[in-house]
Amino acid sequence: MALDRNPDWWRDAAVYQIYPRSFADANGDGIGDLAGVTDRVPYLAKLGIDAVWLSPFYPSALADGGYDVDDYCDVDPRIGTLADFDRMVAALHQAGIRVIIDIVPNHSGSGHRWFKEALAAGPGSPARARYIFRDGLGPDRSQAPSDWRGMFGGSAWEPVGDGQFYLHLFDPAQPDWNLDNPEVRAEFVRVLRFWSDKGVDGFRVDVAQSLTKDLSGDPLPSAAEVEATPAGPGHPLYDRDEVHDIYKEWRRVFNSYDPPRAGVGEVWVDDPARRAIYAGPEELGQAFNFDLLLAGFGAADFRRVIERDLDLAAATGSSSTWVLSNHDVIRHASRYGLPAATAADQQERTTQGREWLIRRGRSPQEDTALGLARARAATLAIMALPGSVYLYQGEELGLREVTDLPDAARQDPAFFRSEGYEVGRDGARVPLPWAAGGPSLGFGPAAPHLPQPDWYKGYAVAVEDADPDSTLNLYRRALSVRRQLLARADVRESELVWLDAPEGAMQFRRGPWRCLVNFTNREGVALPGERPVLVSAKDLGDNRVLGEAATAWLLD
Ligand code: GLC
Ligand code: CA
Predict the structure, then answer these.
(1) What are the pLDDT digits (tens) for 318-353?
(2) Are 393 and 24 spatial neighbours (Cβ–Cβ below 8 Å)?
(3) Residue 3: its pLDDT value, please?
(4) How many CB atoms lie within 10 A of CB 399?
(5) For residue 529, is it within any domain?
(6) Residue 110 pLDDT > 60, yes or no?
(7) Are 185 and 212 in contact (CB under 8 A)?
């Protein structure tokens, strides 16, 4: 199956996120690589996805899992070469799978040649103007320009020893670019063209809301003042109006290709209506909707998020994006297996569950069976919605978060910068289990860069492949049915219509395709006469009652 030229492929694509270092290790150094992805193209094709999104594979000191990019136009030698990249893209395209890559324009890595130049060139130089350098405060300029904290903890300013500091919203090894600088702006256009010319089909834009900043305040506003300012035009760092000029420029680049390159922004803003601006047709086309990551597992929460997002997509000409897991958040099979948040928890985190316990290393008791049942139900629900779904490697196996990694193995800067208070995101990044045995459960010939827990064996691809009721086979069936249904005009041309559902359940249709989700109805929801085409639960029973935490797809 070769690629078609449909310019709108991204609107309803099933996109599978690959975290390259943890996907498959072809050469046995314990680190996943591009050749490993190429080897697994048959697996991806059988899964039935439309595109992959690769997290960064660029040369990097790995201070933040590769999101500290030292060279935007090359491949980390530990992961492969540009020739490996070309081979991987060719193999994926040959299998009808498109390729989205991650672009990290808010910051580089501190090993980037322009950052090294900036350090060497000294205060006031054009080289420093490409980043965000400020004089320190105090008589000897030894104090940071403001009390801002980085996302991973610690100060957001790093001194360079000559009275100046540079801004890093993330790790000190991730100096923030100055995107007002014309050279930096031109450089990113060059980068987008470099990869587009190589046949890359789209870009995921990291930290998309923060590329333009207002640091004109003198003194700069305090952290408390910044915190109290809603994201938007008045905020110095998040969601400023000028950021859209960048995406309009990039859209012109994307549209100079046939088919136009696609874009999806990682946009963390409070107001979904402002998020939708990034997703407009003049800009990226899509922005991740993370609202389901923050919502509870319940009919009212899901329906509220879905209705709002579909309205926004319709108003902006975008398409919705549905996300339950990624490399930054706790895997949804774990999130849904945790007890509901208490009022006291809400002060720690704003989310509905107690997942913050995991991130604080306190290993809460998970109900693993309930977590998996809910995860499977939620996945079938989002796959039936208009828009595209973004799946994260390993969720098709029903993997949970690994909560007991030894501290010595941890890699996430959040762990180091918070001095262990936050354990970080490594638990969602443990190398995939492909086989039930061997030194890395089939991930590669040698021990993996993060240790796999014993229970991973039971979730290995080889094990699930042989079990018709496995999560892997559920994903395969769901993606295949979804693809068939989306090819039908009576589905494509129908708006989503909400149907009545019993308390604790949710039901909608798109033409003949009906999706019924029983979130919490303990009695179960009786299914109508016709056989469901797909059910997330393993056993429906003879009387065709959809139990709690289960989804059914019906075809009228
Ligand atoms: C995004 C990435 C995350 C990374 C951060 C800084 O949020 O998804 O993994 O740490 O940006 O680049
Ligand atoms: Ca390797």
Answers:
(1) 999 999 999 999 999 999 998 877 666 655 655 566
(2) no
(3) 87
(4) 25
(5) yes
(6) yes
(7) no
In a domain, 250, yes or no: yes
For the full predicted model, state whether its pTM sits above 0.85: yes
Across the beta sheet with 157-159, what order do the strands follow? Answer: 133-135, 164-167, 157-159
Q: Is the CB of 63 under 6 A from ligand 1?
A: no
The residue written with tokens 């068939």 in the block is 484
Of 482, 309, 327, residue with least CA distance to 391: 327
Proximal ligand: closest to the CA of 21? 2
Q: How many domains does the chain have?
A: 3
DSSP H helices, 319-460, are 332-335, 343-348, 356-359, 368-383, 413-417
191: CA distance to ligand 1 center in Å? 19
Q: Structural domain of residue 528, as residue ranges?
A: 495-555
DSSP run (H or E) holding 100: strand 98-103
N- to C-terminal Cα distance for the chain?
Answer: 30
> What CATH number does the domain containing 260 carry?
3.20.20.80
Same-domain status, 189 and 274: yes
Residues 192 and 162 in one domain: no
Residues 124 and 155 reside in one and the same domain = yes
Residue 410 and residue 426 in contact, taking contact as beta carbons nearer than 8 Å:
yes
Q: Do 188 and 247 fall into the same domain?
A: yes
Q: Is residue 549 part of a domain?
A: yes
Residue 489 in this model has a pLDDT that exceeds 80: yes
Pocket lining: 170 vs ligand 1, CB cutoff 6 Å: yes
**Distance, CA of 396 to CA of 325 (rounded, Å):** 11
Please tell me the distance from the alpha carbon of residue 462 to that of residue 417, in angstroms, as a whole number: 38
- Report which residue type is found at 502: P
Q: Is 488 a member of any domain?
A: no
Atom of ligand 1 nearest to the CA of 170: 6
Domain of residue 511, CATH code: 2.60.40
CATH number at residue 126: 3.90.400.10
Same domain as 66, residue 34: yes
Q: Which residues surround ligand 2, an ion (CB under 5 A)?
A: 25, 27, 29, 31, 33
Q: Do residue 288 and residue 403 come from a single domain?
A: yes
List, for residues 30-62, the tens digit of each pLDDT value. 999 999 999 999 999 999 999 999 999 999 999
Q: What pLDDT score was predicted for residue 346?
A: 59
Q: Considering every ligand atom, which ligand is closest to the CA of 431?
A: 2
Share of the chain above pLDDT 70, in %: 97
Please name the residue that has the structure tokens 């996120």.
17
Confidence at 540, pLDDT banded by 50, 70, 90: confident
Residues 457 and 523 in one domain: no
